[in-house]
Amino acid sequence: MSMLTPPGMGGKYRVTGTAYPRLSRPRRRRRIVFTMLGAVLGLALLAYGSLQLIHVFRGDGAGQGKRGTAAGNCPGGKPKGGAAPAVAASPGAAAAIVLPKPGDITVNVYNATQRAGLAKAVGDELKKRGFAIGQVGNAPADFDKKVPGTGILLGSAKTDKAVYSVLGTQIEGDTLQNDAREGSDVDLILGDAFTQLSPQEAADKELALLANPQPAPAATC
């Protein structure tokens, strides 16, 4: 009988040899590990689902709405219903504006500075540029030696604004004032800051822009 055989047991219950049965390790710890892994996986899936819902209700829905609006308004966007996108018409040139001709504008040139002969010199140059010249001389007492800027355009409030715009292309930094006169003539009162009229080329370009304004650039998507 082997020393491993319990007392009183023999026959087929006898344990022989030097080997002895090993007891299996309890599986309780393995179940705990599997349970914890399952719980972590479940929490991860729950968090992922919550994030998807947040994107649907707050992010993606608003983004799709904006993209859809942009697609509907932009030339390259595809409208709903499968229809072909409408091609935006290219903006044409703005309609030309009819401006008064320089010969239709009577300009009175007055010198408010201490420089002798300034009014005559400016009047002669404006005449060469096509303007009709009226009175030429020293400025009235209300303005004589009292205009520190480049000059003043003085005329009736009833005069067409385009008249002032056309004359204004000939001098930079001028200011506009109105008085109670009934006629359409305009006074050009030269101030201390005046040096010379705008160069002929620059004045002609500015006058051309007034007559043919450039259209505003098309909005980009």
Describe the protein's topology.
Blueprint (H helix, E strand, L loop, with lengths): L27 H46 L32 E6 L6 H11 L3 E7 L12 E6 L4 H8 L5 E6 L6 E5 L9 H12 L10
Parallel strand pairs: 1-2, 1-5, 3-4
Antiparallel strand pairs: 3-5
Give a short summary of the structure.
The chain is 35% helix and 14% strand.
Verbal overview:
The chain has 221 residues and is of the alpha/beta class. 35% of the residues lie in helices and 14% in strands. It has four helices and five strands. It has helices spanning 28-73, 118-128, 161-168, 200-211, and strands at residues 106-111, 132-138, 151-156, 174-179, 186-190. Strands 2-1-5-3-4 form a five-stranded mixed sheet, with helices on one face. Helix 3 links the parallel strand 3 and strand 4 (174-179). The model is unreliable at 61-72 and 77-90 (pLDDT under 50).
Rg, alpha carbons: 48 Å
Mean of pLDDT: 79
Rough outline: rod-shaped
- What structural class is derived from the secondary structure elements? alpha/beta
Q: Largest sheet, if any? A: 5 strands, mixed
Question: Which sequence of SSEs, written as H and E, runs from N to C?
Answer: HEHEEHEEH
Which strand order spans the largest sheet, edge to edge or round the barrel? 2-1-5-3-4
Kindly, what is the distance between the CA atoms of the first and last residues, rounded to a whole number of angstroms?
Answer: 98 Å
Q: Quote the beta fraction.
A: 5-15%
Q: What is the percent of helical residues? A: 25-40%
How many helical elements? 4
Number of strands: 5
* Uncertain segments: 61-72, 77-90
